[in-house]
Amino acid sequence: MLSAVLRFPLHRLCPGPRSLLGSHQAMAASLGPKPLVAVCQVTSTPDKEQNFSSCAALVRAAARRGACLVFLPEGFDYIGRDSAQTLSLAESLDGELMARYSTLARDCGVWLSLGGFHERSADWPSTQRIYNCHVLLDQTGHLAAAYRKTHLCDVELEGRVTMKESSFTNPGTEIVPPISTPAGMLGLSICYDLRFPEISLALRHAGAEILTYPSAFTFPTGSAHWEVLLRARAIETQCYVVAAAQTGRNHEGRVSYGHTLVADPWGTVVAQCSEGPGLCYAEIDLEYLRRVRREIPVQSHRRADLYGTVGLQAALPAP
Ligand SMILES: O=C(O)CNC(=O)[C@H](CS)NC(=O)CCC(=O)C(=O)O
């Protein structure tokens, strides 16, 4: 049976991947419509089945609107009540849940950024810890990239927030070079990584045009830091910044800050979700990005002779 989404012209607003289009100049000359991205805000719970239905409904709605790349937040698969439950629900990248997302990407013909999948890897039997893995699927459902969160959130705000991600998660050991997507070159990070400008600069040096921070921020830290940090990363790197977020009550003991947003390379918030689960959309204008970079060429004004080469030493190839 044909699913409902197939009745809609899915690729109306989506040019093909950069690699198929050739150089930046060819892209600029192509005068096609600007790629549209969709950013999802959800309230994941420990119920994986329910979370999948909610996320899939948002992805289908985004595909109907013509988005070519859809972003889901950290913990899109589930948010566990405690670390024991979080560990017990985790799957591998070739498990059942990823297979369902792969089918979803293929059926809808969209790329999926699945931030913060709880991944059981080959070292699970020995470490009994998981990875916090940002999975990127292409529009045929194939794995385009996987980045494992490198900065783990071990934070204690006295009497308010206790997070000890390292007690159940192994840190990732590498940064992943930006990936060519139909919306632009995409650099992958996750949540707490947002606090480290070094990784954003490393991705920028390696050619990123869009940085993404799928997140599950706490309320006290989110209300003080979320938008400021996201806009700062956008301004410093002159990239689009896309941040899908968990919102609301995930379970009895946890509330997430929400405020899913997209900032453009000038730092302007160009899309934002309101309260509760939902979607926001943004056009990615790479002509505008290039203008911002031309007008304020910070990248060529850096004084590595004075303060070293933050981000440049990363083991990433230059574009
Ligand atoms: O554990 C899961 O299931 C999903 N992962 C998370 O919720 C992670 C680790 S506990 N949360 C953050 O990194 C919040 C960062 C934050 O709030 C800040 O930097 O202020």
From TrEMBL:
Domain of life: Eukaryota
Secreted is among the record's keywords: no
One protein family per Pfam: CN_hydrolase
Gene Ontology molecular function terms on file: deaminated glutathione amidase activity
Hydrolase recorded as keyword: yes
This protein's UniProt keywords: Hydrolase
Enzyme Commission designation: 3.5.1.128
Entry-linked InterPro entries: C-N_Hydrolase, C-N_Hydrolase_sf, Nit1/2_C-N_Hydrolase, UPF0012_CS
Residue ranges of every copy of the CN hydrolase domain listed in the record: 35-286
Enzyme class: hydrolase
Stored PANTHER family: DEAMINATED GLUTATHIONE AMIDASE, NITRILASE-RELATED
Family membership noted in the UniProt record: Belongs to the carbon-nitrogen hydrolase superfamily. NIT1/NIT2 family.
Protein name: Deaminated glutathione amidase
